[in-house]
Amino acid sequence: MRKANVSKRQRKLSALITACAGATLASTALSATFTWDGGNVTDGNWSTAGAGGNWSGGAAPVSVNTNDLVFASNTNGLVSNNDLTPNPFIISTLTFNAGLPAFALSGVALRLSSAANDIVYNSANAVTIGNALVNAGNTTLTGTGTGDVTLNGLYTADTGIPSFTASTAGNVNLAGGITILGNNVTVTNGITAANKTLTLGGTIQPVLNVGKNLIVAGTVGSGTTTAVGALLQNNGTGVLSVKYDTNATVNVTGTANTHTGGTTIQGGAVVSVPTLANGLASSSIGASSNGATGLQFQNGTLRYTGSTSVATDRRFVINMGANNTTTYAAIEASGAGTLDFNNTNSLSYSSGALTRSAILRLGGTNTGNNILRAGLINTTGGTALEKVGVGKWILSTGGAYTGGTSITGGTLQLGLTAGPPLGTAAINSSSGITISGSDAKFLTFSNTAVTAPITVTQGTLGGTGTINTAVSIGSNAIISPGASPGTQTYSAGLTLDDNGSLLFEIDNATGVAGTNWDLLVSSGSTTLDSTNVNPFNVLLDGTAANFNNANSYNWLFLDASSTLAGFASNLFAVNTSGFTNGLGGGSFSVLRGDSVGGDNTQLFVAFTPVPEPTSVGLLLAGMGMLLRRKR
Questions:
Q1: Beta strands 602-608 and 553-560: pairing type?
Q2: Is residue 145 within 8 Å of residue 121, measured between CB atoms?
Q3: What is the DSSP string of 1-30?
Q4: Residue 609 carries which DSSP code?
Q5: What is the rounded distance in angstroms from the CA atom of residue 160 to the CA atom of residue 182?
Q6: Contact at 8 Å (CB) between 325 and 351?
Q7: Which tens digits make up the pLDDT trace of 536-588?
Q8: In 3D, which of 442, 553, 461, 473 has the Cα closest to residue 508?
Q9: What are phi and psi of 14, to 5 degrees?
Q10: Strand, helix or coil at 272?
């Protein structure tokens, strides 16, 4: 009896040892690295294993979340085809080794389960992954590879908060589209080489009937671009919202996106779009309504690059982040076509954080009539307006904002029409208008006089609207009255200072001041403060009809309300480089009116021709007779 009991215990122990050993062997088998060499000469199937198979270890992989697949070589040169089950086939990582030739995967979908570095790409040659990819976590494409990687299969961002990050040194094309199952998916361009592109293609949409977010992010200072050519759309009642974030530089090449969840540009992102449209119409930024929340900014830039001029009734909002002291929205017109934001509702801000200050920045390279018709209103912390870049923007309304107005490049125009004063556009609540750029211009064509302080450190002040604030035109500053040509009135003081300039346009030598050549009217005080060492410059510009260089001309250019004390002709210099008529040896000067039939409150540009030879001869003869009489 005792012997039987011992035998039973031994059998149990032996069974336990055998089970443990089996479990250990199974565990070892299920946590392994499988290396592909493509050794089979007839097919590229994953199931082709054993001697003469496609896996260097002989065995084909099994679907386990701890297995790693390494693609080291591809002897047969065929497409590597996953014909294994289940679908999706679960693995930990995919690695493409250095030295791998151009390579392609296809077949059954893959679920990647690694916590990091799901796809490691170290090759200099192109790799194409045609399998659909499914991931509930963070999918990372990393490695030292410099070739291009293309993912042609659908990427399903599963439940949780999934993401896809590209951080190799070559171009990456996520061409198969994205279906979003979780709350959102973040696609990050972390490509490590400058001038490379992460491309999003296919269709990007939420799971059927459930709203989701697509977030496109970048990396600080990477010099890379994300190209979004995918169709961005809703799915049934599932609404897609799109956010561009974290210093992303994005070119949206799609022109007919239909998502209605709105577009947000934040975190320093710059988003270029070829189309814009009215609310509810498809465009590069989708088909949301024209309500303010359809286009939102929180330190981001929208850049229009379209080839045709476009008008849109879309409004936009500046989201005032609680942790930001100043938040900006930037809109650039940089295509061949102009851009007109024609909704006249006032600029909007997100509620709850209105104590922060805001900046609206208008820029771009288009020099046509780009228009903002919305009125700028304040946050509690104040709103400022910045005009940057070489392009032109027109404010048809202006607004009651109290921050500064700075023009560092291009043209900021007040009032729609470049002609006689029209409309009531005004920015007089602004703390000051500063013009400070070699090509910077502030022009007013509004019926409402400008009363905000104006400082011109470099650039041009002009137009036809009245300036009712004291202005000094000194070194690097230009005053340019009219609208080629025309009249402008300064009613609160005008100083012509050292090295300042007047751009004097003329189209008819025998015409009328203010109509055929530029005229400054100074109804306040007028100060001539230049010196003969640093004279004030009159820059002649244009081709004057009826100009005859054998005749004298006096063209009124300054009509003041009081005597121009301290005048001397050498306080002014006339520059003729922009005047296209031939001078025939004649010369220009600046004269006060009381010497040319006007009065001492006026200044004229005077042209003096070379005397005719007959006149010179008579003059010399007369001098000769005078000398003989003296003898």
A1: antiparallel
A2: yes
A3: -HHHHHHHHHHHHHHHHHHHHHHHHHHHHH
A4: P
A5: 5
A6: no
A7: 999 999 999 999 999 999 999 999 999 999 999 999 999 999 999 999 999 99
A8: 553
A9: -65, -40
A10: strand
Evaluated on CA atoms 624, 626, 630, 631, the torsion sign reads positive
Angle, vertex CA 219, rays to CA 214 and CA 224, nearest 5: 95
Token pair in block for residue 505: 């346009």
Number of residues that make up the chain: 631
Helices first, then strands: H and E counts in the chain: 2, 53
Is the Cα torsion angle 190, 192, 197, 200 positive or negative in sign? negative
Pairing of strands 155-157, 133-135: parallel
CB distance 306 to 277 below 8 Å: no
- The predicted model scores a pTM of 0.91
Task: Return the C-alpha torsion angle 230, 232, 238, 241, nearest 10.
Answer: 120
Chain centroid to Cα 440, Å, comes to: 19
Q: What is the pLDDT of residues 183-238, one digit of tens each?
A: 899 999 999 999 999 999 999 999 999 999 999 999 887 899 999 999 999 999 99
275 exposure class (CB count in 10 Å sphere: 0-12, 13-18, 19+): buried
Residue with structure tokens 């023009």?
407
C-alpha span between 48 and 39 (Å, rounded): 9
| CA-to-CA separations, 251 to 216, 224, 271, 330, 608, in angstroms, rounded | 11, 11, 6, 16, 59
Do 469 and 452 form a contact (C-beta atoms < 8 A)?
Answer: yes
- DSSP 8-state symbol, 530: -
Burial (CB count within 10 angstroms: exposed 0-12, middle 13-18, buried 19+), residue 175:
buried
Look-up of token digits 């709103």: 383
> Residue 570 carries which DSSP code?
G
DSSP states of 465-521: S-B-S-EEE-TTEEEEESSSS-EEEE-S-EEEETT-EEEEEBSBTTS-BTTTB-EEE
